Amino acid sequence: MRLYKLTAGTLLETDTEIFLGPELDWDQLLGREHLPKLLKSEAAHWEKISEKEAEQLKSEGLLAPMGNQEIWAAGVTYYRSRTARMEESKDAGGADFYDKVYVADRPELFFKATASRVSNPGETVNIRKDSTWDVPEPELTLLISPSGKVQGFTVGNDMSSRSIEGENPLYLPQAKVYQGCASVGPCILIQEEMLDDSTQIRLEILRNGKTEASGETTLAQMKRKPQELADWLFRANTFPIGCLMMTGTGIVPDNFTLQKGDLVKITIDGIGTLENKVGLI
Hints:
single chain; alpha+beta; 8 helices
């Protein structure tokens, strides 16, 4: 089932029916265990609507499907990411770090965003004025319950300054964490089963209406499994209202940097497409 946060209300799509519900407290909602069972019970009291009505509601605007959950991220979980990070940091002498973390037992985990830094679907994500090389990072993003169990998935855009991180790996927080540094949506796919390894992630970047860069990968290219990453995040950490976790990118456009005005489209099979314009901050 897919759960959407509307500007006024909540939309739940199942395989056979669509339900319109009230505005919810998303801190409380995502802080619950066994969400699939909970939502099925709640939807029994919601209004059934048509697919046409649902599409109209979505076209009026969607909010990021979260409350005040923190967003964390994992890095260098794809071989393509390892290679790109080694290339961008070789002049700074940091290339070996990325090779070592790719093969290490402990993954790279870092804080990505508070809710106030997250852009809604269709709104603007930012690149930094003090950066010269910027990319979107298309990532499967996990919804993790307070007990550390993966119980949903969404599309994530981990905006990144490759020039700042490449200058020195210690600059990672500045390359990753700033206003408009992330977007998630358009919905959460609520299910406790893992996605199939054949699930595709696709990126398209449009500039003046034309495709400027694109790429695709599958979850089969991930070195680490989603629940494994969640387990590492929950070591010595607690999340009373749950959290979201970006799982790394396998798509890194070559010889490309974002510009203000670009349109970023990220699609994950079974979840949907997340679109954001690019701004400058």
